[in-house]
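User: I'm preparing a small set of examples for a lab meeting where we compare how different chains pack in three dimensions. I only have the primary sequence for this one, and I'd like the structure in C-alpha cell form so I can line it up with the others. Please keep the answer compact; I'll paste it straight into my notes.
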Amino acid sequence: MNSLLDDPAVLRELIMDHYQYPRNHKLKEDDSYASVHMASDSCIDDITVQAKINGETIEDICFDGIGCTISTASTSMMSELLIGKNIEEANQIIENYYAMINEKEYDPEVLQEAVALKGVSKQANRINCATIGWKAIRQMIDESENKK
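Assistant: Understood. Below is the C-alpha cell output for the 148-residue chain.
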C-alpha cells in the first residue's frame, strides 16, 4: 500500500473520493455531541464538526457545512481515522497529521489515507483548509479532557 501512497494520481483520487463522497457528512441532533463551528478567512470553508466523546473514547464524529475540496476531504478522512479511538490514540494521530502538514517527521502508517494530503504542506494557502476540521476535533478533545 505504501508505494501506492507515493503515486500522485492515487493521492488525487483519494482526495477526490473523500470530497465527492464525504464520510460522516451529516450533523446529529443529539445533545450528547460536542459541536464546534469553524470558518476560514481565506477560503469558502465554513463547517461545523460534532463529536461524541464518552470517557476516553471518541464514539462518533460528523460534520457539515460548505468546504473546499481539501477541507472536506481532510475532515472526512479525519472522521474515519478517529472514530472508535481512545483519546491517547487520537492525539497520536492528530500529532502525526500536523507533523506531516508542517513537513516534519511523521508515521504514514498511523495516518492511513490521510497521507494523501501530504502535498498540502507545499501550498501555504491550503494548510488552513487541510487543518480546519482537525482544529475542531482537537478543541473538542481538549474541552472533554478539561471537564475531567
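A couple of notes for your slides: The first strand starts at residue 34 and ends at 39. The chain has one domain: 4-146.

User: Perfect, thanks.
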